[in-house]
Design brief:
Strand 4, helix 2 and strand 5 (108-112) form a beta-alpha-beta unit. It contains five helices and five strands. A five-stranded mixed sheet has the order 3-2-1-4-5, with helices on both faces. The protein is of the alpha/beta class and 172 residues long.
């Protein structure tokens, strides 16, 4: 059995301005170009091992969530997969329920968090880390530029499970 905390997020091209240092009288400026490219990411984190699974999609909907479930099933073949997740509508969609009721979906068990409780899902802290590293005080010129920054972050995360555990508050 594997226990994973799951969520999805969107990394948008428009800036997330964070506190930063600047020389007195020289305010930091982050340019903007007026359109809103984004990348959607599904993620799962194992809070015992620090392993993370990422899946990028054009949007976060029931169909792309099912794609993510298939990816998890492939990665954790022959294991029972327990997912802790929020109450997003895509997690309850008819096609998702139909999948879970099928023989193929019998591999999964969903545990839903109470409504409006992101503080209970450790992957939310992974998303904060991602956004702090990828979009805070940065201008990405297009969707490809965002994707490249996300790739660098993902590679770092996959190589450092101990840091993942520390960042999400689950270090032993």
């Amino acid at each position: 059995m594997v226990l994973l905390h799951v969520d999805e997020t969107h990394v948008r091209a428009y800036q997330a301005l964070r506190t930063t240092w600047a020389e007195v009288g020289n305010q930091k400026q982050v340019p903007s170009y007026g359109h809103h490219a984004h990348v959607s990411i599904f993620g799962a984190v194992d809070v015992q091992q620090g392993d993370v699974v990422f899946h990028r999609a054009s949007s976060a909907n029931a169909e792309t969530f099912l794609d993510f479930l298939h990816l998890l099933k492939e990665k954790y073949a022959n294991q029972f997969i327990v997912l802790v997740l929020d109450n997003a509508r895509i997690h309850y969609a008819k096609m998702v329920r139909a999948f879970l009721d099928s023989q193929e979906g019998a591999t999964f068990h969903f545990i839903f968090l109470p409504p409006y409780s992101p503080q209970l899902n450790p992957i939310e802290r992974l998303w904060k880390w991602l956004k702090d590293e990828v979009i805070a005080n940065v201008l990405h010129k297009d969707q490809n530029d965002i994707a490249q920054s996300i790739t660098r972050f993902e590679q770092h995360v996959l190589q450092h499970p101990d840091e993942v555990l520390r960042r999400i508050g689950c270090a032993a």
